[in-house]
Batch of 2 targets.
Target 1
Amino acid sequence: MEFAPAITLMPLESIIRPLEATDLEQLVAIEQDAHEHPWKESIHLSCIEQEYPSLVLEIKGGVVAYVVFNYLYDECNLMNITTTPKLQGRGYASQLMHSLYQHSKQAGMKSVLLEVRESNQPALSFYRKEGFEEIGRRSSYYPKDEQREDAVVMRRSLDELPSTPTGLLVD
Ligand SMILES: CC(C)(COP(=O)(O)OP(=O)(O)OC[C@H]1O[C@@H](n2cnc3c(N)ncnc32)[C@H](O)[C@@H]1OP(=O)(O)O)[C@@H](O)C(=O)NCCC(=O)NCCS
């Protein structure tokens, strides 16, 4: 009599590392899938060329999420955080965000600033859960179909950092 091999369910190990130029193709594919108004490849390329300290989260050698950011004076400017749609809701953006806090704090930043479309409810919920607060609006900032929509400007202080969620952080 034959027995079927036992199946062991292992948590998928995630690795966070600096974004590299060779990630560009994967970023552009995820960007197209995840965003209603995706960045063009040239914008991602420009951020890579300017050597922003951006990060990616990998599982089994493939990029599944990324965060693009830059430092200006004592502020970290978060420009893009994205998780591939089929893996959203599993805490990957949150892991990336916590890594961004650590890197930013080490680099001497005092806060994280971002702008988000007022219609982007998932992102607004995500940022609020991460402790961001609305500090202003930029009227008609983003193009939307034939019209424009406001940007919500949000800020989070880096004075107090929550404990890092699970995940292997690689510098
Ligand atoms: C916003 C985004 C990055 C979140 O990524 P994610 O990996 O799914 O986020 P997490 O799993 O870490 O979510 C953490 C928390 O964010 C909130 N959140 C995330 N997705 C949400 C959704 N669709 N609706 C409501 N809240 C959501 C929840 O509070 C969640 O906590 P919970 O799971 O305990 O409820 C993702 O939805 C995305 O890539 N969206 C498209 C790109 C985009 O708009 N990026 C932001 C502007 S650049």
Note: Residues 34-35, 65, 80-83, 88-94, 116, 120, 122-123, 125-126, 129 surround coenzyme A (CB under 6 Å).
Target 2
Amino acid sequence: MKQRGGTIGLVSLGCPKALVDSERIVSALRAEGYDFSPDYAGADLVIVNTCGFLNSARAESLEAIGEALAENGRVIVTGCLGRDAGAIQAAHPGVLAISGPHQYEAVIEAVHEALPPAHDPLSDLVPPQGLRLTPRHYAYLKISEGCSNRCSFCIIPNLRGDLVSRPAGDVLREADALARAGVRELLVISQDTSAYGQDIRYAESQWRERAVRARFFDLAEALGELGVWVRLHYVYPYPHVDEVIALMAHGKVLPYLDIPFQHASPRILKAMRRPANQEKVLDRLWHWRRQCPDLAIRSTFIAGFPGETEDDFKMLLDWLAEAQLDRVGCFKYEPVAGARANALENPVPDEIRQERFERLMQVQQKISAARLQRKIGVTTDVLIDEIGDGLAVGRSKWDAPEIDGAVLLPGLDELQAGDLISVKITGADEYDLIGEPA
Ligand code: SF4
């Protein structure tokens, strides 16, 4: 009879990058014969993959560790909050081990110590593409770790270190394995996708019969040959992004860019120390739209950054009206412990941060709704995510999972998640499109 290493529970918090870390941990442990339990009661121990970015995320992570300890009693902590082991130990002295982000080996070692693996040469039944926590038809593809920028509100470089890019060949082999396993959409993630390869001087590596450089364009082009949707997240508006827009115009990668602009006032952008902080960003957006009229642009902004005046904020609203972005997320500035921006003068009171957040969302809601209205009558491919009561819910090339809207398809509940169908858009509300088979 097959002897197994034990059963593990996993709580995965935080961003898609943390989810990819969780997938690697699950894949590695599954390969060693460990089982996974969906609840605390069925697990011999619980791994909590934490997020430490915002104060609210730290609190959520500490709470999750406490819950796992109360429900199960044996807890291994990893992820971004793991960099602050002192805070975890102070709150929860009973945890078995603590490691930081992408320290997979430390997690595996801690599991071995607490729950020794049983040797079983037949236990390696893990498919080559690993095990994933996202639905079967889409997957996040992490192309680098860390970040060499130093935005004043962000502590990610402290948590994860400087940019470390994966060789292009490795990324492409993983992407190819995912595509062969039935994944229909790859979501390329990193902290700064447009900086990919800078740290390794765009080194070439082998992919199939050729060498591919670790360069944003080269990687996007090669991914575009795999026959699946490729969506690019966390891109900054550097001039070299122009050449990737050409790939979008030719249908090689999705006409979608997720660019975290964060603000539009030059004074605030300078105080934020944002990368690619150029004067002519609006010109660049319009240039891209001329190159690729179908392009959808998503962004995020921070309202109430320290020192932001009403004039700065109005500049941001005016900029949004001109930029006509398709999708926008907004955060109220939050003084993350350890961020240099906390020391800036003239912090914005909480009620003004809240008020500006609401004003920004109102302005953007009208823009997004008007842009969605323009899609009515268009025929486009839709990737089905889930089936509900008499309804299929999917996404077009303009919508990323989790963060954007959806395409609602009433009466199509015979479809399956992962189906790709041609849809005529017949209606739109503030966030979602409504369609029918074309
Ligand atoms: S680009 Fe700026 S906000 Fe993004 S991870 Fe790097 S330092 Fe943080």
Note: The CA atoms of residues 307 and 345 lie 6 Å apart.
